[in-house]
Amino acid sequence: MNRENDYFKAICKVSRAFWTTLNHDELLHLIVDSAIDTMKVKAALLFLLDEEKEEFLPVAQRGLSENYLRSGFTAPRKLVFFLEKENYLFVEDATSDTRLDNLEVKKQEGIASILVVPMRVKGGKLIGGLCLYTGSPRVFTQAEIDFLMAMGEQASMAIEHARLFGKIKQNTGILLDLAVNIQSSLDLKKILHILTADVAEYFKVKASSILLVNENRNTLDFVASYGLSEEYLKRGPLTLDKSVQETLAGELVVVRDALTDERVQHKKEKEKEGIVSILSIPIKAGEKVIGVMRLYSGTRREFTEEEILFGTVLAHLGGLAIQNASLYLMLESDVKDLRENIWSHRAWF
Fold first, then answer.
1. Which of 118, 178, 259, 287 has the fewest Cβ atoms nearer than 10 Å?
2. Does the global pTM surpass 0.85?
3. pLDDT averaged over consecutive 10-residue blocks of the chain (349 residues)?
4. Alpha carbon of residue 95 to chain centroid
């Protein structure tokens, strides 16, 4: 009964802090401290999963050495497998269990048993985990596992809350930056380059690009990109194939595996470039689709509704920038430059 009371007090303490503190780091460290003090263990760690780089990112910990943080973790792919399969991972002997990696480092660290529970967000997506380490062999009870699962859920909510707050702030900054550039500059190449850079950073993808319809050649031509190699860009324009036609019809197109999707062109070049998933968003001027904004991920990626919605907003702003610059050039009657420069894409008008 006393132990259950301790669990209740710890959860209440974290819950109160969740609604009274704006400091994300303080809250995560409180969760780690509460887990250690309540469970009477050697150390605890909160980590996030970076899918793009396939590595764990420690966000809060107590009791672990710098050496262990550098070289003691188990491969993410292996740990994720167990968390998805069993919903937690318990290892009684961390120095010999072959489900783990770097056993010698764990032995040097003085780690005996390990318990890892998942951290998930809406939809059940795994974003990381909460891990306990003991200094002597220990078998955790179901009540202890349930308590740690509850603490992991608190950590997930704190991280998601901070992420949403950060996204709102980031979205506002990107939209303001782009709006100011559209209003103050007619340098379309500069505006579109800023847009591709902002998009790649926001979505945390490998690269992004903007391609516009060339009606003379019936192709899509690169006009701005970020993160793509010169060799990849020199491979030539895209013909209006199935995936391109879908986007030009105003549809969002998600390619989960660029190497196997029959709609994708230049598969060898994409494999060499390290492109796995692609999101194509139509760019419109008025009601007419004039091009495509593309995001390229280096790992298999599922884009959320929130991400797709914001990407669509940015693509519409890109279309507005193109239309704005094009109308100005038309008013200047600089038809020759329109045909000879990047502005030759008649579909913009």
1. 287
2. no
3. 66 66 75 90 91 81 93 86 89 94 94 93 84 95 90 82 74 75 72 89 92 83 92 78 72 90 87 94 86 92 87 87 71 56 52
4. 33
